[in-house]
Amino acid sequence: MQFELDIIKVVPPGDGCGYYNGKTVFVPATSPGDRVRVFSLRENRNTISAALQEVLIPSPERVEPPCPHYSKCGGCSLMHLDYKQQLELKRRMLIEVLNNQGIQWDPQVVPSSEITRFRHKTRIRCVDGQLGFSERQSNRIVEVPECQILTEEILSTLKRLGQLGRSNAEYQLLQSCKTGGVGVSILEGKQLVPLPGFEPSIEEDYGFGPLVLHSHGFAQSNPFITTSIIKDLQYHSGASGFICELFCGCGTFSLALAATTPQLIGYDISPLSIQTAKETLQRQNLNHVEFAAINLNKLKELPAVDVIVADPPRKGLGQHLCRLISGSKARKLLYVSCNPASLARDIRELTGQGGFELVEMKGYDMYCHATHLEAMAVLVRQV
Ligand SMILES: C[S@@+](CC[C@H](N)C(=O)[O-])C[C@H]1O[C@@H](n2cnc3c(N)ncnc32)[C@H](O)[C@@H]1O
Description:
eight-stranded mixed β-sheet; Rossmann fold; globular; alpha/beta; binds S-adenosylmethionine; 3 domains; 22 strands; about 375 residues; CATH 2.40.50.140
């Protein structure tokens, strides 16, 4: 079924939304003020999921997407908006998510200093010999030789991967800002493992000495905004006493904070990440920092630290860890999150009866042109 409608607003995860015959219609790659013709893909009692066929009257916010793959590729969903509008949209979405938990805050969203060629880490699939990102609203693959968000080095590594002749595979690529080198791993079952013939790890430097990161583990995707997050972590932790980092991965944030603290411990479930973090410690000869591989969901008690830094996966800290933090001696929590919804839920748990007060909240545009948003909340113990 084809029909026309006006797009009224954008809703998470970034689809334009309007109304038709009493139903709410969701259309990716549209913006408020667009008059569009769409065709319906799926329909139920109250909603229609539709695909854009033609923009009949463009919104004043609309710009020509700089990427030739944008109309098909599912990798980016906001490139039809001017960058300032993208940031404003994310700011409004963050406010809405916070309001849903009864939190009144007007956060700023920190822009990325680079908005093309900013992605230093990517997951990419090869299906029936085609290597690329998933097509928007489908499972097919779009090849992306002129992708605007990946670095030149990652694009040329993709060419090399294409020449391997594999018909089905999934890769993770990670590029160092320091050396330009690209590490490559491949998915085997549910596990990423180094891909033979390519470097498994890279050496990175965010301004506090060499840091080892591996392509088969966690690393931040956008080094430009990671630098902004690190500066804010350093500012808010100040000259702290004992710091504990929960979900520390290979230790990117811990190592950035190591210089200004007398003692630091980082925990992560991944033995490989902890081993990599320890490798960096050895190279930098840091004796006051420790890392340990533990499952934080099973932790019974936190050490008597002054400041907690946490950067959990999308599901957030959850009730168990929120309660441990509330019952700990920590006077400050710096909570970095890739999912504002779980962050807002946890802030509600930690404030009020939880004993903490929210004193700062910012978004960080880690994923330019997509709707995902990184955020950081600063919570201090109420006196
Ligand atoms: C968003 S990453 C944060 C990484 C780190 N901040 C960095 O910049 O590299 C989340 C981390 O949580 C870890 N993780 C997931 N579940 C965990 C658990 N139950 N206990 C401890 N760590 C866990 C993952 O291994 C991953 O390193």
